[in-house]
Amino acid sequence: MKRTPDRTDLHGPRVRPGGTAADACAVAAAALLVLAAALIGTHLQNRYGVLRVGWPPLVGDWMPHAGPGTPAALVVAVAVVAYGPTLAARLPWRPLLLAVWGGALAWTWSLALVDGWQRGVAGRLTTRHEYLQVIDRFHDIPATLRDFHAHILIGAPDNWPAHVAGHPPGATLTFVLLDRIGLGGGAWAGAFVITVGSTAAVAVLVTVRRLAGEDLARRAAPFLVLVPAAIWTGTSADGWFAAVAAWALALLSLAVTGRRPAWTGLGAGLLFGLTVYLSYGLTLMAVTAAAVLLLGTRRLRVLPFVAAGFLVAPAVFTALGFDWWEAYRLLVTRYYQGAGGVRPYGYWVWANLACTVLMVGPATVAGLRRGGAELWRPGRAAVPRDPAARLALLVGSALLALLVADLSGMSKAETERIWLPFAVWLLPACSFLPGPRGWLAGQAALALLLNHLVLTGW
User: Fold this and answer.
1) Which one of 79, 173, 228, 279 has the lowest number of neighbouring Cβ atoms within 10 Å?
2) 32-51, pLDDT tens digit by residue?
3) DSSP H or E run through 33
4) What's the CA gap between 294 and 284, in Å, rounded?
């Protein structure tokens, strides 16, 4: 089927041949980083007990196992490797979006069910640190929001569980509202996170098409399905956060490239406002939002609508009595009262990056190397017109946000789930790679090995 090139595809795709030796070197360096994090981390944990993780650098335990999701995961992996690139090139655009969402759902569900229904899905969000532990304390939502700050510190009466205290109340309210509409309990919560979290792949695809052209978006599509990070999308609440942030950026990309920016700009602002009440760290999505604005052609027209939408969530939560800045100040104290005060910065500042390698896989590492080469070529304009360079700028902004989070010291361990909203934006770098089937096989192999050898904590 012949496709009409997207109007944002300015000069056609530029997937450069060659560079396989450099790709191999980048992947080998990343593998050595992971190995060093595992060996040094195991030594530190066994001798000093300061890392507070079971299988450094990941939160989890060494536990080879299989489950009902194992056959399905193998089938999905083989199908995407064999047919994914061809379907991505030939399907009409809207069916391709549905196929990507369906593939991401199948992959995420099957990986979650490797651990079994109860352990892998229904029980994940019901453990002592999780949001469902406090649903009954939100029977009067305004009163709870006014009193939220009083329970953040560890020494406070009836202090919140770690994840509730570590996030603005929008995160917990997600599951409170699910409970209110009759979808209470861990099974519904897990199904919600997987179903909505998997849409992040579609949002990324929409954004890449608008800003860098349809051909590069199509090349990225199979990699957005077969990603190791799906292990933590199902069923960590951070998968839900990643989807909200991804759709905020997708709507922003539509606003800055479309003819009617009002509704998409307003929608983007609403979702950006919501993200900062889901996770404090998602304020760093502003870095990638700035890149989207830079790559757009109608950024000045969009800003008033985005700003108006953004103010809605802060206005509502503030009116209900929640002070974001005071809660964040208390959270910093709580963070250092707990594991954050014990975990050594000198290890995690680089071991976090090893976690990221395990999340995004070897193909993304090689793709990032190629993207960096695109950005650093001599004569590059500040706002490039070449689709590959535009994509590299978008991906690079997500990498920059991730590095800022890393250097802040507020991300020591657990980044395999915390950084999901940033990691999904690194995956489009895989569109720079020739020979996608081999790279897809590597992505699938890493995910399957991790999920079957390590019982992850999320």
Assistant:
1) 79
2) 999 999 999 999 999 999 99
3) helix 20-48
4) 16
* Distance between CA atoms of residues 39 and 318, nearest Å: 46
Three-state SS across 52-72? Answer: CCCECCECEEECCCCCCHHHH
The 8 Å CB, 24+ separation contacts for 139-146 are: 141/173, 141/176, 141/320, 142/320, 142/321, 144/169, 145/169, 145/317, 145/320, 145/321, 145/322, 146/320, 146/321, 146/322
pTM over 0.70: yes
What are the pLDDT digits (tens) for 59-115? 999 999 999 999 999 999 999 999 999 999 999 999 999 999 999 999 999 999 999
225 close to 80: Cβ distance less than 8 angstroms = yes
Please list the residues that pair with 185 across neighbouring strands.
none
434, two tokens? 């020739």
Q: Measured between alpha carbons, how far is 397 from 291 in angstroms, rounded to an integer?
A: 6
Q: Indicate the length of the chain as a whole number.
A: 458
How far apart are alpha carbons 96 and 427 in whole angstroms?
Answer: 17
- Rounded Cα distance, 240 and 174, in Å: 9
Rounded distance between C-alpha atoms, residue 334 and residue 313, angstroms = 24
Cα dihedral sign, 128-233-401-173: negative
Reading the block at residue 335, the tokens are 């963070």
Residue 11 has pLDDT above 60, yes or no: no
Angle at 395 between CA 390 and CA 401, to 5 degrees: 130
CA angle 216–32–344, rounded 5-degree value:
105
d(CA 60, CA 419): 17
